[in-house]
## 1
Amino acid sequence: MINTIINSPDAPEPVGAYPHARRVGDLLFLSGIGPRRVGSTEIPGVTLGADGSVAQYDIAVQTRSVFENVTAVLKSAGLGLEHLADVTVFLTNMKADFSTYNTIYAEYLSTYKPCRTTVEILSLPTPIGIELKCIAVFPDAKNLQ
């Protein structure tokens, strides 16, 4: 069985001791992916106050950046968005952000229609409003119809 760690030079560095993704057999498990920029602590769409707390944020900018990062990790594994089978989305403000995020999600994934779960959480490890956790399937997977 294949069991390989995948890190993408085109995605932001993980904030902990984990890889961007791990291939196990025909599945690729992505770690939580946020909107940070590669090589930077910059978070697109976030303005921090003097105390480091979020002064304001733009969920549309963050959501697009998250999809760019997910795409980068998938590309490093030789895959694309069409290979996603399951997506778990974490939002820190469901009431305010769901509609915008859902519209942008559809721009990227309405053609492919992976399974999806969206949950609201109190916070994420960095001052972001969205994070995606994904599972993709390699196209050479056997017994898939």
## 2
Amino acid sequence: MKIAISQPTYLPWLGYFDLVDQVDKFVLLDTVQFEKQSWQQRNRIKTPTGLEWLTVPVKIKGRSTQIIEEVEIAAPEFYKRHLNLVHAHYRTTHYFKDCFPQLSAILEESCRDRLAVLNFRLIEWLMASLGITVPLILSSTLKVEGTRSALNLAICERLCATKYHSAIGSAVYLLPDVDLFARKGIEVCFQNYAHPEYRQLFPSFCPYASTLDLIFNEGPRSLEIIRSGRGNPLSPAQVALQQNPAQR
């Protein structure tokens, strides 16, 4: 049983779905503290002048310690601006007519829900558009506690995982605790991803846009393109060497 764990982000990038595509179950971590102006509430689309932010306004005044599942959307009408921008910059793409109505429906139906609900539905839709069928699990449904490595380990144990496939960004806190996973019979590895190029409007190519950019431009080829950036998972020892070249 291989699992990955990540926060529910807004219209995630390609690497997010590469991680989802490699595991048996994917956990959306909605029980950790919300960080304003993070990927949890925003992402980018391609425009003639480069990448432009789409940001979901949320209620933060007096809520500095709120967790992700508690975050409320502040101005539901935000979705109109987001759809107008997507329409303006993607209406001439090959697969716009296939994807835009579904995006519109989700944003309009979910704009008054909490942020985590909106993100869950968008991630679910993007997975379906890509052809990824991995089950999504909200950490709030697992009733486990802890922070950082301890929380991830508790989730792995709760789901009877034998392998934890982590995003490379988590290595900064996860590497010192790899032995804790090993003692529980859980192997830790890290994602190894190089962003691929694909057909994109407005030269030159800009990586790290929302996966919306990929599916509007490439449609049925999108998952194949995501997988083309995948390298072999990295062991903790390999990641440690990358981060500390002097140890070689």
## 3
Amino acid sequence: MKWYEQRFVNRRDWVLDHLEFLGLSEKELIIVLMIDFMSEHRIPISIDALAQKAGMDPKDVDETISLLCAKKYLDIRASGKRVSFRLDGLYDTDVAKEAGIIDRPVFDLFESELKRPLTQKDMERISEWNRIYEKRMIILALREASMYQKVSMPYIDTILREWTKKNYTADMIEQGKVRYEGSDRSGRTG
């Protein structure tokens, strides 16, 4: 399963968060968001339906869809009586890999440290951290929590916020120049 097909991924948020990399015009953005919305809610998609929902002229919608197909962001497939609009090309771009939005090894590392499968809420939180923090910082915070035998999502979140507030870098932490001071060895915060 691809990263954008995971149930915890909000594709529309991802698109909005990466507009500067995707190079979508206003019309393209509206059509992409409408296609994703309609697909998710199993609303039949057609030029007329998109035009009506987006408040656009059908001719503009048709031109916009052609542009999205030319950019290979959109793939339209007909099978039997059904036409499907797939935005896989939009999410398969190198942008997702460069931005490190979804990183399966980080999820695996968390599952190993937590000694349980991640919940959807856990995965959403880790995905959010991936958007905010450097991957190394997330892993270092997990290790710090593990060292204090206090591996929990709220505790790791607190470590990340504290390090950010104090302008700590991953290099500083890895070199042992700083450490999380919000806990003693017993795991109590203080």
